[in-house]
Amino acid sequence: MEKEHKYFSKFLSYTLRHHPEKIGLTLDNKGWADVNELITKMNAHNAALTMDILETIVASNDKKRFAFNDDKTKIRASQGHSIPIDLDLQPVTPPAILYHGTAQQNLESIRANGLLKQSRQHVHLSATRETAIQVGSRHGKVVVLVVQTKQMHEAGYTFYLSDNHVWLTDHVPAEYIEK
Question: How far is CA 58 from the centre of its chain?
Fold first, then answer.
């Protein structure tokens, strides 16, 4: 059952964050999808998704990647979109430092250009070194960068905190990054 949930979680991430059109799903401008439509369209692609499985995935996902609306008729990804979505996040004051986990091979580019959002809507930062290690280890030999977010905020950069506690910003210039 755990293997099935992992498959559905990855499929949900792909669909709700990047390519809803691959299953013919429509998201509203806030990233919400109709739950019944999602289940129907996923099952048309040889899945066996049920509301019970979907509720389990949303409740048990360690990164809280997905959220239901209050009556569980809609679902969306909490952050990490590569498609234009308005998550309706309000600017917040970040802690003095945040962390970013990345692979060793990315350091030269980061030193030259800072942290760029690439194909995503925001740069993702972590509140703890442990989370940054977990994130960065997916991409190779991990390096944890310390981001001087208090200084950035004081210089006028804007930060957001997603529903699943990922810190977001548009760009982190190299001068605010320490290895």
Answer: 14
Taking alpha carbons only, the member of 157, 178, 179 closest to residue 169 is 157
In angstroms, rounded to a whole number, what is the distance separating the alpha carbons of residues 82 and 163? 17
Query: Residue 24 — left, alpha, or beta (φ > 0 → left; ψ -120 to 50 → alpha)?
Result: left
Of the listed ranges 49-53, 116-120, 150-154, the one predicted with least confidence: 116-120
Here the tokens at position 50 are 């049920």
Token digits of residue 34: 């109709």
Average pLDDT, the chain: 92
Q: Which of 42, 36, 51 has the alpha carbon at shortest distance from 13?
A: 42
Instruction: With CA atoms as reference, report the closest residue to 85 among 35, 119, 124, 121.
Output: 121
* Distance separating alpha carbons of residues 134 and 83, to the nearest angstrom: 24
Tens digits of residue pLDDT in 150-170: 999 999 999 999 888 999 999
Q: What is the secondary structure of 79-142 as a DSSP string?
A: S--SS-----PPP-PPPS-EEEEEEGGGHHHHHHH-EE-TTSSSEEEBSSHHHHHHHHGGGSSE
Cβ–Cβ under 8 Å, residues 16 and 27: yes
